[in-house]
Amino acid sequence: MSASSSPDLVVIGGGPGGYVAAIRAAQLGLTVVCVEADRTLGGTCVNVGCIPSKALLGSSEHYEFARLHAAEHGLRFEGLSFDLAQMMKRKDEVVAQNTKGVEFLFKKNKVTWAKGWGTLKPGNVVEVKGHDGAVTSYAAKHVIIATGSVPLELPFLRFDEERILSNVGALRIPEVPKHLIVIGGGVIGLELGSVWRRLGATVTVIEYADTILPGNDADVIKEATRIFARQGLELHTGTKVTGGHREGDRVVVTTEKGGETRTFGADYVLVSIGRKPSLTGIDAAALGLALGRRGEIVVDDRMRTNLPHVYAIGDAVGGKLLAHKAEDEGVIAAEVIAGRPAHMHYHNMPGVVYTWPEVATCGMTEAEAKAAGRAVKVGKFPFSANGRARTMGHTDGFVKFVTDARTDEILGCHMIGPNVSDLLSEVVLAMEYRGTADDIGATVHSHPTLSEVVKEAALGALGRPLHL
Hints:
- The protein is α/β, with parallel strands linked by helices.
- The chain has three domains: 9-151 and 276-337, FAD/NAD(P)-binding domain; 164-273, 3-Layer(bba) Sandwich (FAD/NAD(P)-binding domain); 351-461, Enolase-like, domain 1 (2-Layer Sandwich), CATH 3.30.390.
- The protein is built from 14 helices and 23 strands.
- The strands form six sheets. The chain has a five-stranded parallel beta sheet, covered by helices on one side. Strands 9-16-10-11-12 form a five-stranded parallel beta sheet.
- The protein is globular.
């Protein structure tokens, strides 16, 4: 074991939360070591999650446009085909650009990357076992645990990443499946299911809950269900997967709904039923680290654990498993360590599903607001009434505001439509400052833009939309 050094901060994990925490702490003048065993920085999001999935989503959207919609624009193709190997190559290149970018930022901000597996010992000592077996010890003044999460498995469908896939394997299928079964109708399942459907696979989505995208606003779920079914996704909701096994290059899945049993067969199965905190290198019991009932690390609003000078962020602390949540928690933890009066809140945490059309949401659904005893007003405006959406040929969906009937404060906003992932930001900003529908309705929005739908929906909550 090499001699111990004493940095101000050791971050265990180089994903979105960990690397952002490390960079922010370095900006604040701390000496920082970030421990990451993968060959590249960026964690699940950059390497096998957000970034590669969006690359494949983009490529498959281009192909579907050329196949189904280009003729509407006067564009004609003969012998249209796609090169899956090139799609995968481009996806890998995009990932490499992002991981190299994070490594550059570490060098720029003088963050030390400790390449290896980190283990937290009592007294905030972090031991790092390198790929060569050598162990380096760091006596840290502060530690941030950012060890992320791992996908949940079904006991009868263990991942082999050949035919029974997690998100990792689903991004690396070497051929277009003839039939892909997706177990789980949430974000990951619908995004990756959409990729392979566009490229020609039959895709069957099996969801235990009564709807796809459980937890979203009912109007969004209804619209998404209609659109995705029209696109060709075969949706089975309220359906429990009771068994499954692999037979050579085929996977058989058994389901139950309403007392009736059904069997599905496919050449690939994606299991996307959720994720759980990963505490690799963290022996919570030995350390006395407090955990919640789902195995998540318990923290306060300053990201502090029950252990002195030990913080935790990202998927390891549970809640919504979102990269941008982890990043924000990382910034808060770094600033608290540096002595700044920061604290974390989750009131206005946005969420996005990168299907097409996209789904973007923030705040309370209409049902949640009513359940909380709030008198609400609702404003909705469809993309079909928007000039820019018509020019683009993407008129599915709407923007919906849920506001307080007494104060006009925005309680929630729910969107399904083209590029809504970008349209949501102004609403999140407004909600941060307890803005009202009138605030957005009084703001000039450029014409013709999709953002006008946001304004019109806000005006709708006031009872005075202009173009509906």
